[in-house]
Amino acid sequence: MKKVILSSLLGLFAIIGANAQSDSELVQIGVKGGVNFSTFTGDDLGGDPDSRTSFNAGFVAEIPFSERFSIQPEVLYSGQGFDVKQSDQDNFLDNDENIEYQLDYIQIPVLAKIYLFKGLNVQAGPQIGFKINEEIDFQPNDDAGDVDFDEAEDIDISLAAGIEYKFDSGFFIQGRYNYGFTELIKDYDVHNSVWQAGVGFMF
């Protein structure tokens, strides 16, 4: 799996590098980060899990093809999963924290980016996620309480869509929603659902 992730990253940066060499003025590379509000959706959940609050961070590039249209590839760490609320009656671990099911990915979205007018743009495109961590954390605020888990599929295919405003300085703010098409557990209708808000800077 590590070889697959490394090969994907090298391929992505090779594409960016090739475009930068052919016309470096057209390509921008930057960094971004933000907050995730993630949960699961689907008919086989058997409940309504609370969202897990985590973060995303990584690298972004913009390759313009016209004044209004660009392709935007990214490579991000994305903390996903959901929270399991506990009541006082069933808190058998003597723990007043929520239990977190943590399902973390390296996400590689490739988005079509359309400018509606100067600065304001909408984005949408496919995203492939490589699972790098899956565990149940009984003490999310401490280093203890982690129990390794291995039930979810290693690769998640999803759709990412959102809106962004980019300032002349290169600073941008954005909001995005990601919906996973992959069944996280084979033959079960359970999918990733993630809202994201963040900021970034293009160099």
UniProtKB/TrEMBL annotation:
Pfam families, per the entry: OMP_b-brl_2
InterPro entries listed in its UniProt record: Beta-barrel_OMP_2 (IPR025665)
Keywords attached to this entry: Signal
Segments forming domain Outer membrane protein beta-barrel: 19-185
Top-level taxon of the source organism: Bacteria
Residues making up the signal peptide according to the UniProt record: 1-20
Protein's name in the database: PorT family protein
Native species: Mesonia aestuariivivens
